[in-house]
Amino acid sequence: MMFVSLSTQWRIVGMGDVIGLDYAAVDAVFRIRRIKNRATLFEGLQVMEEAALAAFREAKPK
Questions:
Q1: Fewer C-beta neighbours within 10 Å, C or N terminus of the chain?
Q2: What are residue 20's DSSP bridge partners?
Q3: Count of beta carbons in the 10 Å neighbourhood of residue 6
Q4: How many Å apart are CA 32 and CA 43, to the nearest integer?
Q5: Dihedrals φ, ψ of 18, to 5°?
C-alpha cells in the first residue's frame, strides 16, 4: 500500500526520464500514516523502486 501511495511521487528530469522516488515525500507519507518500522519498509520500497525503474527503462521508446 505504501508503494501505491507514492505513485505520484516520482522524480522526473529532462525529457521525462524517471530517476526515482522523491524520498522527502516518502518520509512525509511515513509520518502521515504513523509508520513505526520505517527502515524495513523503506528497504522494501527501494526494491520495488528499482523494479519499477527497470520497467520504465524497458518501456521507454528508443
A1: C
A2: 11
A3: 19
A4: 19
A5: -85, 125
Instruction: Quote the cell numbers at residue 26.
Output: 516518502
Burial of 21 (0-12, 13-18, 19+ CB in 10 A): buried
Contact 30, 20 (CB under 8 A): no
Residue type, 24: A
**Which pLDDT belongs to residue 61?**
84
| pLDDT, position 16 | 87
Mean pLDDT by 10 residues, the chain (62 residues): 94 93 96 94 97 94 80
Radius of gyration, CA atoms only, the chain: 13
Half-sphere exposure (Cβ direction) of 12: Cα atoms closer than 13 Å: 8
